[in-house]
Specification:
single chain, Cathepsin B, Chain A, 8-stranded antiparallel beta sheet, alpha+beta, 12% strand, two-stranded antiparallel sheet, 12 strands, 441 residues, 2 domains
Length: 441
């Protein structure tokens, strides 16, 4: 149910203690600064590759725009091969970007260190550039009349000879610093990763209309079904009372919406159908499975079976540490399952309120880490963090930069869909765990 807040804190404390850095100078140990330089160099290398892919994509777009349709078979084959080559190389850049981002988070664990923040910002920009390349490729794919399920494959004998990076060890075993990015480029086997090679449609699915799409939100998880309210009050005391107060505040926000005094960004009602009750300390896995379900990219089976499959995958890839009931996803890999299944992610740590509102205001879903005790009004959870899916935000109609409340799906208890948390309470829970959120596109 939790991501270990104490572990994340320990990483930060150890990082600060061992790496007492001021500006560009490392007082006690130069290793972190040297590591940051190596990561920075690797990032610049990837950026140069991405810049090359951008120019090739634009050139291909212009060539297709200038061509006469219907295309002759050989011209179509040439365009398809160029598109395939760009797609494959972009897929490798996506995986390399994920490796570097995880390395920044895990090795340079102190998010307050200026170099860490700068590297993370550069990495997020790279993700945005790769996302734009993918959008271009999708449009070119449509123009060429290729199937939406086309996976970028082409006959190996027809692939133009070129300088490509080759992955010769499993992606999850690559460690920085190594020479993985600096080897003499070789011809890439077509079995490599692909930006378009996912079954992912890259668009959120259409939700079923009507009540079936929005299971009833359980206003107070501390109310025991079938028992008198006084029993729940007696058993859970302040936890029960605080949820009641939150429900009252949420009702006021919803009343303002009914009076057209606020607007909803996102799809909290529809996305409530994605939530399920997690099985163990697996909130980060369960939330990512929700996200993948929204894009029809989750493993086959029921939500519970999908979580089982993603849990096994997380263990195999060393994203998850410990037992299912008492372990956790490491902070370095909090959103890696999304990337492994075809989405590009951007992670934000020590973000401010404006950044969160700007991201949520676009209507996108976000993975957000909050303090479990403040989320559930339960002091026994004071050492735990919990990941939730932010499905929408309620904004002032006259000032869309001012949030009134945030809609979340909480896999921590049954009926945890479309909970509306007042903005002040949500901010408090969010800032208590490092103000982290993850975007995916």
């Amino acid at each position: 149910m939790r991501i270990s807040r104490s572990l994340a804190g320990a990483i930060i404390v150890l990082s600060v203690a061992a790496w007492d850095c001021v500006g560009d100078d490392c007082i006690e140990d130069k290793a972190p600064c040297a590591e940051a330089e190596r990561i920075g160099f690797a990032t610049r290398m990837i950026d140069s590759q991405v810049a090359d892919l951008e120019s090739r994509t634009v050139a291909l777009e212009r060539a297709i725009a200038a061509a006469s349709f219907p295309l002759p078979p050989q011209t179509l084959a040439d365009f398809t091969l160029q598109l395939s080559a760009i797609d494959r190389e972009a897929g490798i850049m996506m995986q390399h970007h994920g490796i570097i981002f995880s390395h920044i988070t895990f090795t340079l664990g102190n998010p307050r260190w200026e170099k860490t923040a700068d590297l993370r910002a550069d990495s997020n920009k790279t993700a945005e550039r790769l996302a734009r390349i993918r959008d271009y490729l999708i449009e070119l794919q449509k123009k060429l009349g290729l199937s939406a399920r086309w996976n970028g494959s082409a006959s190996p004998s027809l692939v133009p000879q070129g300088r490509r990076l080759k992955l010769d060890i499993p992606i999850n075993e690559i460690k920085l610093p190594t020479d993985w990015l600096f080897k003499q480029p070789e011809i890439l086997d077509l079995g490599g990763p692909s930006l378009l090679g996912q079954t992912l449609p890259l668009k959120e699915k259409k939700y079923a209309p009507g009540p079936s799409a929005s299971p009833a939100y359980k206003l107070n998880p501390y109310h025991l079904s079938g028992l008198p309210i006084w029993v729940s009050k007696w058993l859970y005391g302040s936890s029960y009372q605080n949820f009641e107060l939150e429900a009252q505040e949420a009702a006021k926000v919803r009343a303002r919406h009914e009076r057209s005094e606020s607007i909803t960004a996102g799809k909290p009602e529809e996305r409530a159908s994605l939530v399920h009750l997690q099985k163990g300390n697996t909130c980060a896995i369960a939330v990512q499975s929700e996200f993948l379900r929204a894009y029809n990219a989750a493993p086959l089976g029921t939500p519970e079976q999908q979580e089982d499959a993603l849990f096994k995958e997380s263990v195999q890839k060393h994203y998850y540490i410990g037992t299912r009931q008492h372990g956790h996803i490491t902070a370095a890999h909090a959103g890696d399952l999304l990337q492994d299944h075809g989405l590009l992610i951007a992670q934000h740590a020590l973000a401010n309120d404006e950044e969160l509102v700007a991201a949520a205001g676009t209507g996108k879903m976000l993975l957000v880490v909050v303090a479990a005790d403040l989320l559930w009004y339960d002091e026994s959870q004071s050492d735990g963090s919990h990941m939730v899916l932010l499905t929408g935000v309620e904004l002032e109609a006259k000032d869309p930069t001012k949030p009134l409340g945030f809609y979340i799906n909480d896999t921590g208890y049954a009926g945890g869909g479309r909970r509306l948390m007042p903005a002040e309470r949500f901010y408090k829970a969010w800032h208590s765990t490092g103000s982290q959120f993850i975007e995916a596109r």
